[in-house]
Specification:
single chain; 74 residues; 2 helices; globular; binds zinc ion
Length: 74
């Protein structure tokens, strides 16, 4: 069972199609799209909103997949 790994958001940038991407402290990135009604993140559309979410912890799926900082077996 994968263990969720939380990483702090250290910045934001847009990808090539204009979707917002969070830069995480581990060096990975994660999309933070505002795509209602499936995903509602109106805060990502404004500079002020993004500033508020700096330092916010997101679950990094890539770290979880790579098994970073999960408990050692045996
Ligand atoms: Zn990561």
């Amino acid at each position: 069972m994968p263990v969720p790994v939380k990483r702090k958001t250290i910045g934001f940038h847009k990808d090539e199609v204009g979707d917002w991407v969070a830069d995480l402290s581990c060096g990975h990135t994660q999309h933070v799209r505002h795509n209602p009604p499936l995903v509602s993140r109106p805060w990502v559309l404004t500079e002020e909103g993004r500033q508020r979410f700096l330092g916010y912890e997101l679950v990094c799926k890539k770290c979880a997949e790579e098994g970073v900082e999960t408990e050692e077996q045996g």
